[in-house]
Amino acid sequence: MANIEAKTAARRLTLVQTLPTSGARAVAVFENHEGLFLGIPQLARDVAGEAPYMNGGDSDIEAPIYRWQNGGFVEHESLSLPGGEDLEYFEIGSRRFLAAAGIRTGHGPYALDCESIVYERIGHAWVPAQRFATFAAKQWHAFSFDERHFLALAQGVTVEGIEPKHPRQSSIFEWDGERFVPFQTLDGLWGYNFAFVSHDGGHFLAYADHVSGSPVYRWNGTRFDTLQTFTEPGGRAFRFFVSGATLWMVHANLLAHTTLYRFDGERFVAAQTLGDAGGRELCMIDAATGRYLVRVCFITGTPKAPVVVPRSQLFAWRGERFELVEAFATSAATDACSFVVDGTRYLAISNSLSEDIRFRTDSAVYRFDG
Prior knowledge:
The chain has 370 residues and is mainly beta. Helix content is 2%, strand content 62%. The radius of gyration is 19 Å and the shape is globular.
């Protein structure tokens, strides 16, 4: 740590605001004609007298939505989102949507068969537009190409004694002009995350799964075919980027390490290892001074005996590799999102657990001075 800071004349990340969150699982920054907003899905709140447990708590909770005002975020509205895992904002034409995913309901015992809702902004309210029967939902991911609009769902767990009533596999839906309809079912049983990119005439979709292997799919003209699968368990996140004419990909694995891959035209080939176990999410920042990667670090150990990772990492792109330039304080961080206001860049981070495994932990907004 000391060596990193010694190399850095001035820190690139400066804490400017904390937000009172509870088990925060994601940060979704979006902008429309009403302003700039930050939505934070929350897994659970602490229950008085309950022993610390990262999968405990009261999951019948809401997702606060903040609005940017006078240089910071202020409380604006909220959505009921039990066991909140994700919010995904997207637009189709002039219509504005917010897809919400929750892993469970209740406060013990919990129900993993849930309802995940896609909302549409009507007037100044989020109105349910479509409801999906989901099982341990983790993430929605919206992407488009060739005037087609898709919404991918990462979901599922494999827990002994739990038999889902709702569909359990991760899947892709397509917009038919009025609603999202089933398009393709994937093989994954414990999904976490998607990433999409179009490059050199091709379309690639990466899917991170904890137990089923994490595949990268390529569009064949009618559906997504498996191009390559990373078979190790613990898949959490992918991010694509293009440097020069080359397609690159970063894959975070919670149980192992984060890896940079280079696409050689046929497959993704490992090029660099970035950090040890604990990586959960990735955020690319294309700043005026260059490209940066935020590696969001969560926990090590097991859910019954977790060790909170107290720092996440900022890497700078140098030629054809990343250089670690800063480590900054987080607390079982789960997500990061970069945004710009009046020429100043910021980074929002969701923190999910305190060091003593309590949900009540502030999330944070940093000013990014790249």
